[in-house]
Amino acid sequence: MKKALIAVMLCITLLLTACQSKASEPTKQSTVVFYFDTVVTITVYSDDEEILVGLDEECLRYENMLSKTVEGSDVWNINHANGERVAVNEETRNLILTAMEFSRRSEGHFDITIEPCMALWDFTSEDRGTLPDASELAAAAEKVDWTKVDVNEEGVLIPKGMSIDLGAIAKGYISDRIADYFIEKGVESALLNVGGNVRTVGLKPDGKNWRIGIQDPEGVRDQSIVGVVDLHGNSVVTSGIYERGFTLGDVVYHHILDPNTGWSVQNELAGVSIVAEEACTADALSTTVFTMGLEEGTAFIENFDGVDAIFVTRDGDISWTSGLDDLFSPSR
To answer: Of the candidates 112, 191, 197, 226, which lies 20 to 30 Å from 173 by C-alpha distance?
Structure first.
């Protein structure tokens, strides 16, 4: 009888503990907005009813600062300065310096001066199946050279005829800044998705890792995955041939361009996902490593501290770097 009473009391204690734990979980708050030419989805667990107030304004501030298409933005001003130095926001200057460091470490596989080539491609309209003129693209590729970007305390200068595009790094950077905002507010659990740039804050409310599906390049967008990676306060960003592009004959033309030629990168890869502490790093390296190809890209990431990668080839093979052996679960 005494044992039965103890068992009943134990069950009651466990139930009360579970209820208290559930009751103590912070409130789930979500928002979906459209900025940076992409959908931004934010889920944050916080009892602060004002936690999402001001995020729209902050996203708009970054768009007005870093977008190449917004007239008067720092990037727009740099691209229209006709070879003159332009004073820019400190964040813009530092982000360009960060981009140039990725260019240096990758020996030019990452290059924000790819914009003259990108401008000749159309991956979004109904006529996106039209290739750019080969001679025009070759001439544009001659203008691609990250070493000619001059950044100092007074601003940014690029030679006349050159232009920059921060699209391959800005969304990751903005994801990190939003995460920083949440952390400063005391948030311990949040999930951000800025156009495929996934950034987590802490663990899930139940104390478990976030489990993020890795897109299958051959499958339906946001429905087919090649596996799941565990995240805990870090990020994963994927670049692939499925995101923006078209097929002519047997060739897939996509938005990841070779800085040397201006043409879509043609190698064995269909998708690359980078796992890193900061989304800014993952964003830049997903493009960088894709241009390298499987063998060179794998070696590059294995020697990059704190960063790992998942590779999906056009033949459907999946591989990953050693740091993900216990964190990535392939689905096939």
So the answer is: 226
For 143, half-sphere exposure in the C-beta direction (CA atoms, 13 angstrom radius) is 19
Query: Which residues, given as ranges, of the chain have pLDDT below 70?
Result: 1-24, 126-128, 219-223
pLDDT of residue 35: 87
Predicted pLDDT of residue 167:
93
- Quick one: angle between helices 294-302 and 279-292, nearest 10? 140
CB-facing half-sphere around the CA of 204: CA atoms within 13 A: 8
Contact call for residues 215 and 225 (beta carbons, < 8 A): yes
pLDDT in tens, 290-324: 999 999 999 999 999 999 999 999 999 999 999 99
Q: Determine the Cα–Cα distance for residues 237 and 276; give it in Å rounded to an integer.
A: 9
* Strand spans (E) along the chain: 28-35, 38-45, 150-152, 155-157, 189-194, 197-202, 210-215, 225-231, 235-240, 245-248, 251-254, 269-276, 307-313, 318-320, 328-330
Q: Residue 99: left (phi > 0), alpha (psi -120 to 50), or beta?
A: alpha
Q: What is the DSSP letter of 227?
A: E
Domains belonging to the chain, first-starting first, are: 210-330 (3.10.520.10)
Q: How many CB atoms lie within 10 A of CB 326?
A: 7
pLDDT at residue 100 in the model: 98
Phi then psi for 250, rounded to 5 degrees?
A: -105, 10
C-alpha closest to that of 258 among 108, 125, 126 = 108
Kindly state the greatest CA–CA separation across the chain: 91
Dihedral angle, C-alpha 237, 179, 94, 197, nearest 10 °: 20
Using CA atoms, how far apart are residues 175 and 179, in angstroms rounded to an integer? 6
Say what the pLDDT of residue 5 is: 33
CA distance linking residue 229 with residue 234, whole number of Å: 11
